[in-house]
Specification:
By secondary structure, the protein is of the alpha+beta class. It has one domain (43-221). 27% of the residues lie in helices and 18% in strands. The protein has 4 helices and 9 strands, in the order H-H-H-E-E-E-E-E-E-E-E-H-E. The longest helix is centred in the first third of the chain and has 25 residues, at 39-63.
Amino acid sequence: MKPNCSNRRSQAFTLVEVAVVIFVLVLLAAMFLPVLSSPNRGNHISCANNLRQIGLSYRIWEGDNGDKFPMNVSVTNGGTMELFKNGSTFQNLAFLNYLPMANQLSTPKFLHCPADTNGFAATNSWNGLNNQNVSYFVGLDASADNPQAILSGDDNFEINGVAVKSGLLEFSSNTPIAWSTARHKFSGNILLADGSVQSVTISSLSNLVQQTGLVTNRLAIP
């Protein structure tokens, strides 16, 4: 008995079709692999992970301290509130705000963005920590009651093309604040009071500032 033979044509690719598929794959690889493997993208992701760890530390600390962040708690009660008031001799030392959360953060390495070439990561020891080891500002008016408040983020800001300096930065919601080119190519990471981290471009930075509902924003810049 003869076996049944199918009359259907083989569905195998022709040489031309195979060549087209290979060409498309090579083209896609050429487009996306440099982006995925670029140091800038890797640094951006590492920076966002640092801020998530910082956000988690803030939330653990405020859970143990009356639902308040360190800058909302008096120094006498283990916070940093008086340190960053106008006229304080400590207002230029933003790193001090992270010291109360040393146990929650476990390592000061999280305080340094890998794209920040103006400073360097501290070792596992908190001894000798200073502003050079910190890449992230402190949102002095952020509170757990306002989830959209800006809690922290990359500190490489500029206003009217001039880079901001270390110290207390006060600006209104319509101030033309922008990212410099120093780290993530005109973008940056922002940590909100709810613990979320957002990648923010220059165009969306002003919108994020306005969403805080604050007439004046106060940031401690390391």
